[in-house]
């Protein structure tokens, strides 16, 4: 049998992966507690957006794990979920759980770049605009959206400053869309911008914020909502700067 | 015909967002179906009423119910379905327009946009609450049913 300390440490690692990759705090808490119970140590877990507390009910020791959310990767959440199901149902033992957890921590499975680029393009054709924008504009939005997505991913890998990569994505979109309109290729820059912004829009943050608020995890819900507003602000500022650049270069009203 | 186009576009957009947020391959199809059906519900209801909240509420209820069923079916966390399905409904475009008005100094339009965002968000949240409330009593029997068929 693993010692109490080992179980607490392992539960902390599980919680960290879940929270970092976009699981709601309620799920983090229940998963950690299930694993603890299945390992024979009754555990209380309290998860907040910035930290997880794991505590064994029989002992005074509390484990605190700091979490900084960055890139969401829902596949990690799914892998941990399957792992904890297998462990709580007794299919795998504690040693296997630990080794598989290490595998999940070290390897991030991902879609290939061509698949991601295609995905970003597909999201960029917003259903909201299908009968409002012209089909040509939506076609352009497909490529503008890919440009914005790639720009934000590129910068996101090079900087740790929050919000700036998403702002660059917005800027590229604003730049391309306004340029296309000025050159007479596109009918409406605004429609292209709104459509092409879809890959950057803080969908995960807004969805999770709603779910946290419903589940009465009010603090986490508000943190996520504020984060969504900040992201939207960064996108908005980026787009305005991008359009302004084109206007400055080609002349005309800002 | 019109609905069919809406269905296809929203399906593609849900799958696309699923790929970007990196959901597992086996969940792409159920997420896409959930997202596209919810969008059709939204379009149909929005065509009947000028109200902003009702279409969002019913679409969110659709997502809530279908995503929970799909989560049991493919054995995945519900969030994995929720996030891509919501991408067309989440008021991202309105938040952006309102933030843009903010940066251009049009405060009234900016405030109107924020309030609109809030009302849509409330509509979606209430829809989810309804879905969760409906689903709670049928979750366990449904899980047994799926397990018995496997």
UniProtKB/TrEMBL annotation, chain A:
It comes from the Bacteria. It is found in: Cell membrane. The chain crosses the membrane at residues 140-156, 163-180, 192-210, 231-253. Pfam families: ThrE. Keywords: Cell membrane, Membrane, Transmembrane, Transmembrane helix. It is a multi-pass membrane protein. Residues 10-243 form the Threonine/serine exporter-like N-terminal domain. Its main location: membrane. Belongs to the ThrE exporter (TC 2.A.79) family. This is Threonine/serine exporter family protein.
Automatic annotation (TrEMBL), chain B:
It comes from the Bacteria. It is found in: Cell membrane. It is a multi-pass membrane protein. Keywords: Cell inner membrane, Cell membrane, Membrane, Transmembrane, Transmembrane helix. Residues 7-134 form the Threonine/Serine exporter ThrE domain. The chain crosses the membrane at residues 28-45, 57-74, 80-97, 118-135. Belongs to the ThrE exporter (TC 2.A.79) family. PANTHER family: SUCCINATE TRANSPORTER SUBUNIT YJJB-RELATED, UPF0442 PROTEIN YJJB-RELATED. This is Threonine/serine exporter family protein. It comes from Lacticaseibacillus suilingensis.
């Amino acid at each position: 049998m693993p010692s109490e300390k080992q179980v607490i440490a392992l539960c902390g690692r599980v919680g960290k992966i879940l929270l970092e990759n976009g699981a709601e705090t309620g799920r983090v808490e229940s998963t950690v507690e299930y694993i603890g119970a299945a390992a024979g140590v009754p555990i209380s877990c309290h998860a907040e957006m910035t930290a997880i507390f794991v505590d064994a009910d029989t002992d005074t020791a509390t484990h605190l794990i700091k979490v900084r959310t960055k890139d969401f990767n829902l596949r990690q959440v799914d892998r941990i979920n399957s792992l904890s199901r297998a462990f709580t149902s007794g299919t795998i033992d504690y040693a296997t759980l630990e080794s598989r957890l290490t595998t999940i921590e070290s390897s991030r499975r991902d879609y290939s770049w061509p698949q991601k680029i295609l995905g970003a393009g597909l999201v960029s054709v917003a259903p909201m605009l299908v009968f409002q924008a012209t089909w040509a504009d939506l076609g352009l939005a497909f490529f503008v959206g890919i440009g914005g997505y790639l720009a934000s991913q590129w910068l996101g890998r090079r900087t740790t400053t929050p919000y700036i990569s998403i702002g660059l994505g917005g800027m590229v979109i604003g730049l391309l869309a306004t340029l296309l309109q000025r050159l007479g290729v596109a009918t409406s820059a605004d429609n292209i911008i709104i459509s092409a912004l879809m890959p950057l829009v803080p969908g995960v943050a807004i969805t999770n914020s709603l779910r946290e608020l419903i589940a009465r995890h009010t603090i986490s819900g508000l943190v996520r909502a504020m984060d969504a507003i900040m992201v939207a602000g960064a996108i908005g500022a980026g787009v305005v700067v991008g359009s302004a650049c084109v206007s400055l270069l080609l002349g005309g009203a800002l | 015909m019109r609905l069919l186009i809406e269905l296809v576009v929203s399906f593609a957009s849900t799958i696309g967002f699923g790929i970007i947020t990196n959901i597992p391959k086996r969940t792409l199809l159920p997420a896409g179906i959930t997202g596209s059906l919810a969008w059709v519900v939204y379009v149909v209801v929005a065509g009947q009423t000028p109200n902003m909240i009702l279409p969002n509420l019913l679409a969110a209820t659709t997502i809530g119910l279908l995503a929970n069923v799909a989560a049991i079916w493919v054995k995945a966390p519900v969030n994995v379905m929720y996030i891509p399905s919501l991408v067309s409904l989440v008021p991202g475009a309105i938040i952006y327009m309102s933030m843009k008005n903010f940066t251009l100094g049009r405060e009234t339009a900016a405030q109107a946009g924020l309030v609109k965002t809030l009302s849509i968000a409330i509509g979606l949240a209430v829809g989810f609450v309804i879905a969760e409330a409906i689903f709670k009593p049928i979750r366990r029997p449904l899980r047994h049913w799926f397990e018995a068929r496997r």
